[in-house]
Each structure stands twice: as structure tokens, then as C-alpha cells.
UniProtKB/TrEMBL annotation:
PROSITE patterns: CHAPERONINS_CPN10. It comes from the Bacteria. One of its GO terms (cellular component) is cytoplasm. This is Co-chaperonin GroES. It is found in: Cytoplasm. Keywords: Chaperone, Cytoplasm. InterPro entries: Chaperonin_GroES, Chaperonin_GroES_sf, Chaprnonin_Cpn10_CS, GroES-like_sf. Heptamer of 7 subunits arranged in a ring. Interacts with the chaperonin GroEL. It comes from Candidatus Tokpelaia hoelldobleri. GO terms for molecular function: ATP binding; metal ion binding; protein folding chaperone; protein-folding chaperone binding; unfolded protein binding. Together with the chaperonin GroEL, plays an essential role in assisting protein folding. The GroEL-GroES system forms a nano-cage that allows encapsulation of the non-native substrate proteins and provides a physical environment optimized to promote and accelerate protein folding. GroES binds to the apical surface of the GroEL ring, thereby capping the opening of the GroEL channel. The lineage of its organism: Bacteria, Pseudomonadati, Pseudomonadota, Alphaproteobacteria, Hyphomicrobiales. Belongs to the GroES chaperonin family.
Length: 98
């Protein structure tokens, strides 16, 4: 896991996409042009949390190192320290993979 110099604010997280296999279970090789962007990633950095209605800081459920699933169009693509990453809100994450 790489360490980034970027720290997201509030309830945002930084995610590195996890690339899918280049070959199917049946042995068919998928060219790069036919691959969809993966919807699975690893949390690289997390913000401090969101504030509830009373103003109390609520920590995020995800943490650096978690593998997560997110929606196809979730997040904003950015390049940080030469690496392609996504910045998204915790609410864009569908779940944590065991």
C-alpha cells in the first residue's frame, strides 16, 4: 500500500482502483479497449469524518487499507503523486470486502 501526501477533508476518501484480471475464467484474454473500469478499490486515505445535525464529528466506517466496492460513476478521478486515484464521499461506497 502506497502512502499519499494528500489528505481528504470531511467525509471524503481516496481510493486506488484494483485492476481486474486480463483473462476470463474460461481463458479468454480481454483486450484493454474492452475492459470496463473496475468498481473495486483500496482505501488509501480517509478524511476526519462528517458532522451530524448537532455538530458532533462522526468518524468514517472505512479506514486505509480496506477493499471496497463503489458505483460505476462514483468519485472524481485525480492524479496524485503520479498515480491515478479516485476521491469520493463515504456514502458513494457500497460496502467493504471481507
Amino acid at each position: 500500500m502506497s502512502k499519499t501526501s494528500f489528505r481528504p477533508l470531511h467525509d471524503r476518501v481516496v481510493v486506488r482502483r484494483v485492476e481486474s484480471e486480463a483473462k476470463t475464467a474460461g481463458g479468454i484474454i480481454i483486450p484493454d479497449t474492452a475492459k470496463e473500469k473496475p468498481q473495486e478499490g483500496e482505501i488509501i486515505a480517509v478524511g476526519s469524518g462528517a458532522r451530524d445535525d448537532s455538530g458532533k464529528l462522526v468518524a468514517l466506517e472505512v479506514k486505509a487499507g480496506d477493499r471496497v466496492l463503489f458505483g460505476k460513476w462514483s468519485g472524481t478521478e485525480v492524479k496524485i503523486d503520479g498515480e491515478d486515484l479516485l476521491i469520493m464521499k463515504e456514502s458513494d461506497i457500497m460496502g467493504i470486502l471481507g
